[in-house]
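re: ur question from earlier - yeah i can do the single chain one, its not a big deal. heres the input i used so u can compare w yours
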Amino acid sequence: MDNIRTVSDTKRKFYGYHTRPVNSIYRRFVEELLVEMHLLSVNVDFGYDPVYALGVVTSFQRFMQGYKPEGDKTSIFNAICQAVEGNSEKYHQDAETILNEAKGLSIGDFKDKLTHVTENQGGEGSLWGTFGAIAANAKFKYSRLFAIGLYTLLMEIDADLVKDEEKRTETTQAVSSALNFSPEKLQKDLDLYRSNLDKMQQLLTVIEDTLEADRKKRASQEVEQTPEVVDEKGTPENQESETNG
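and the output i got, formated as tokens:
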């Protein structure tokens, strides 16, 4: 019997791949994402798919906004994927592919196509093939990251969907019904995701305001501490110029 990787194993791998310290503000998110992906990867019913990949990529991009140093973000994402025995390039490629397949569709087109491919349990292309396979899989393992990927797809199709709660709820219920998982669970995960995004944005705003106030304070202190330049007679130059004027 193969030994199942533990959370500690995965974390150890992550910090072996990314050896620089993770910014403290973002460390909790990074480790929570890492643990979530780990637990899915060792679940016998879980199967990687492009919608899940889009959820991982989107979640990372949205919650890592403002990370410093910027150059470390790629290393961190690569390390997360490698730690769960995944490939970061594949995540990005699969996410981009299904986003491109969704472009140009209306929500109505999307729901009609979804109904067709799930009833026939198959479809052309990465996106529709994925949905067909999910509909045919009685043991499909739903996840929060899948929900985020799905939400990202819907936003690509209709950016105003986020503003219309009735339309958004109707759409997510139609999708969950077609793919055979709980609409309540999907809605709960999306509400939490949107709430956390708002909180993260508020935190980044507070941090930026604090940094700006600190910069202004330091600049003011530097001006106050600048020594007066005196001439050879010991008279401050600014005072001498005023006298001569």
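Residues 237 and 243 are 10 Å apart (CA to CA). not sure if urs matches, ping me
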